[in-house]
Amino acid sequence: MNAAKTIAVIPARGGSKRIPGKNKKVFCGKPMIAWSIEAAVASGLFDQVVVTTDDPEIAKIAQEHGAICPFERPKHLSDDHTPTLPVIRHAIETIEQGQDEALELVCCIYATAPFITAQNLIEGHRTLQQNQALEFAFSVTNYAFPIQRALYIDPDTGSMKMFQPEHADTRSQDLREGYHDAGQFYWGRRNAFLTRENMFSAKSAPVILPREQVQDIDTQEDWDCAEQLYHLNLKFNYDR
Question: What domain count does the chain have?
Answer without folding.
Answer: 2
